[in-house]
Amino acid sequence: MGELANQLRRELDRYSPGGKLPSSRALVERFRVSPVTVSRALAQLTAEGLVVTRPGAGAFRAQPHAAAGDIGDTSWQEIALSADGAADLVPRSVDASGVLVSLAAPSPGVIEFNGGYLHPSLQPERAMAAALSRAGRRPGAWGRPPMEGLAELREWFARSIGGPGGSVTAAEVLVTAGGQSALTTALRALAPPGAPVLVESPTYPGMLAIARAAGLRPVPVPVDADGVKPALLAGAFRATGARVFVCQPLFQNPTGAVLAPERRGEVLRIAREAGAFVVEDDFARWLVHEDAGPLPRPLAAEDPDGVVVHVCSLTKAASPSFRVGALAARGPVLERLRAIQVVDTFFVPRPLQEAALELVGSPAWHRHLRTISKELKSRRDTVTAALRLDLPELALPHIPPGGYHLWLRLPDGAGGEAALTAAALRAGVAITPGRPYFSAEPPAAHIRLSFAAVAGAGELTEGVRRLRTACDEVLRTA
């Protein structure tokens, strides 16, 4: 579609303003592309204001735009955006750079080791398309849904979180527009601006961005291969008076750690004694690898006292655009979560909720989960073998049995993350520096490599080879 749009854009000068372009059929025959490709190319040019389409008549070159007026002076906004009141000591700027690293698409030809979502070849596109089509034909599908979400979808999430024993009920679940939205709602509900919030160190940059945008002060609590360290967590609660701890007990981002069985109860006990909430970001449960064995239950399934606010989402296992998730909580906090979500977004669009029900209720969903479980293990094994062979100087202390990334420590004196990230991009591979994953000074230089966003095993081994080239450049000049 992009190539056809570019070609048509170059040829527009052949037509006078208002002149008719060739028919869609003629473009299909000339460029030997599908009608869908032609339609999308014309839609792109229409969005750019270069072409206008008239139903039944065809596509025409748009009239030239009027000359732009004088550029205004927006310098006054610097004062308006930073002029806090005397009582408002919370910084108002928002830094999204740590999030954009995994959202920005790399240039053509660059291998995407920094992606945060499944490659299109791993996404259940046919199943999602079929689910969306069936959902659109459901009675009432385009009406207003319940504010909390469709009852059937809440019930499905409740069973997924609490298990067959029913420790989580549908009444304790809110449907959200993905995990990021759910985390935003949770942090706004649980802590006032200026308050400390305990976070794992390292941790997901998107959560740090949410906390800072809400005016919260992230306080790091170190993790190891068994998850957060309970003694340090207890000390952080005592030292800060925090009332919130955000964690990823399963396949933690970026380390891949799984909270050890003997630590699970300790974390809940420490939080309960501190009068604090635990926000459980269970983002990767459906990204388990084939060799992982039985998974631990969510912390929320073992918490009768309302300590845990649970966050989960279908997005990572489906598609970046399939933004349906859930918040689960019990007690008075649930009403506050619901109120904030209603104020912010009203509700998740009903057709998307209906499509989620169609998807997770179909045999295709379970087949898809088995497929990605097998594929993610294969990719993990491929990239770890290539790293051991070509880049033994990069320490890989933990190989996770789930998730989509590896956390590598750079050797001391290696020239730093920024230098390696830049050199890797010159070599044709995009990697993620470790610094955005720390809320304070990092103990060492790291990089994160994603193995989910590339096309397959060939790109994984080629990406490691290109990273070897980058390391040779940086280490040589360090």
| Rg, Å, rounded | 25 Å
Indicate the proportion of strand residues: 5-15%
* Major beta-sheet overview: 8 strands, mixed
What is the total tally of β strands? 15
Percentage of residues assigned to helices: 40-55%
Q: Please mark out the parts with pLDDT under 50 across 5 or more consecutive residues, or reply none.
A: none
| Count of helical stretches | 16
The structure class reads alpha/beta
Largest sheet strand order: 4-11-10-9-8-5-6-7
Shape: globular
**Termini Cα gap:** 44 Å
Quick check: average pLDDT? 89
Task: Give the SSE map.
Blueprint: H1 2-11, H2 24-31, H3 35-47, E1 51-54, E2 58-61, H4 76-82, H5 97-103, E3 111-112, H6 125-136, H7 151-162, E4 173-176, H8 179-190, E5 196-201, H9 205-213, E6 217-224, E7 227-228, H10 230-240, E8 244-247, H11 261-273, E9 277-281, E10 308-313, E11 325-328, H12 333-345, H13 350-360, H14 363-390, E12 405-409, H15 417-427, E13 429-430, E14 432-433, E15 446-450, H16 457-477
Parallel strand pairs: 3-13, 5-6, 5-8, 8-9, 9-10
Antiparallel strand pairs: 1-2, 4-11, 6-7, 10-11, 12-15, 14-15
Describe this structure in words.
This protein has helices at 2-11, 24-31, 35-47, 76-82, 97-103, 125-136, 151-162, 179-190, 205-213, 230-240, 261-273, 333-345, 350-360, 363-390, 417-427, 457-477; strands spanning 51-54, 58-61, 111-112, 173-176, 196-201, 217-224, 227-228, 244-247, 277-281, 308-313, 325-328, 405-409, 429-430, 432-433, 446-450. It is globular. Strand 5, helix 9 and strand 6 (217-224) form a beta-alpha-beta unit. It is built from 16 helices and 15 strands. The mean pLDDT is 89. With 478 residues, the chain is of the alpha/beta class. The strands form four sheets. It has an eight-stranded mixed sheet, with helices on both faces. It has a three-stranded antiparallel sheet with strand order 12-15-14, covered by helices on one side. Strands 1-2 form a two-stranded antiparallel ribbon. It is 41% helix and 13% strand.
